[in-house]
Amino acid sequence: MKSVQGKKSSFRIIKKAATIALFSAGLATFAGVGVQNGAGLFSSPAVTASADTTATAQPTTNQLFSVNTRYGSQTTLNTNSFAQLTQSQYNDYGYATTNKKLDLTKDFSVTGRLYLGSRVDGGGDAFNILFSPDNPNTLRPASSTGGMLGMNGLASSFGLVFDEHYNSDSSYGDFQNKSWWQGGRYEGVVSWRTTSPDGTLNSNKRQDTGIGFASAQSADEKAQVVSMNKDMINGQGHPFAINYNAATSTITISVPDNSYSGAFGRDAQLVYTKTGAISGSTWTKQVTSQQKKDGLYLSFAGVTGAKDYNNFAVAIDSTNNINN
């Protein structure tokens, strides 16, 4: 009888130990702890842990944008988060656009580098950091190239435009940027450009006050016009940062390399304060309550014209809260 009782006790102990072992193994799997294999080494976590990680994985920076150019579209930026928007040819265009509208009830930020080409003389037309309620891929090329700045046809939109080419035709509404020594030569400008509710590009035409060149106003009193630094047209990337404060509904864009001082043969940078400009490298824009409610696409657009062209491109280095 004693030997039989001893066997029962041993059986209970073995059964209990097995139950604990199974529970412990299950717990290790649930927690993603490595389990010992036959060779006495620890393998990677169980598949269930990997599946959970995959389910919550966020897109990489290059996957947040779609690229559409004259030569067709591609799903994302390339693996270096870079997009070539235009080539060395006339009437070209290209967009790198967020796959979703920005949620303007939340702060967001984007940093990267913009490329404004290498043709100082004959360069154009423009690079546009564009915000629009509709995806610009819906635009017809003829509506967006050249002096239309990649935005004509997009209703209630705005963009910070690096305009390398002055169009004297009043239909484009370009700001005539000049200083006392330039005579008939006009340098590029950086300013906000906007469209009306029907998508028509609004004028940014210069309005002189007769006091001095830098005291000129604009048809758009909030255009924030400053002279463009032509030294950025060197084929290199120039850092930019976009920050949005949801509490104040304000977008701030900074491009430090656009600031410059006077040098031999060149005047100091013109900052047109009567157009709302605050510096040579920082611009602000307040979104409307309707834009905040509906959300906006963010695009980086490059367009060339019938007489001028450049190789425009963009690289995205970091993003925050644009995958809403």
Task: Explain this structure.
The chain is of the alpha+beta class and 324 residues long. It has 2 domains: 2-56, no CATH class; 61-320, Jelly Rolls. Helix content is 15%, strand content 27%. The protein is built from 4 helices and 16 strands. It has helices at 2-31, 47-56, 141-144, 289-294; strands at residues 65-69, 72-74, 82-84, 93-98, 108-116, 126-132, 158-163, 189-194, 206-207, 217-218, 226-227, 237-245, 250-254, 282-286, 297-303, 312-320. It has an 8-stranded antiparallel sheet with strand order 2-1-4-15-6-7-8-11, with no helix packed on it. Strand 1 (65-69) and strand 2 (72-74) form a beta hairpin. It is globular. The model is unreliable at 1-55 (pLDDT under 50). Keywords: Signal. Pfam families: Lectin_L-type_dom (PF18483). Residues 1-31 form the signal peptide. InterPro entries: ConA-like_dom_sf.
Query: What coarse outline follows from CA principal-axis ratios?
Result: globular
The portion of residues forming beta strands comes to 25-35%
Helix fraction by DSSP (H/I, runs of at least 4)? 10-25%
Mean pLDDT: 82
Which structural class do you get from the secondary structure elements? alpha+beta
CATH architecture designation of the largest domain = Sandwich
- Here the CATH topology of the largest domain equals Jelly Rolls
Overall number of strands: 16
Which consecutive residue ranges, at least 5 long each, have pLDDT under 50? 1-55
Distance between the termini: 73 Å
Enumerate the strands of the largest sheet in spatial order, edge to edge or round the barrel.
Answer: 2-1-4-15-6-7-8-11
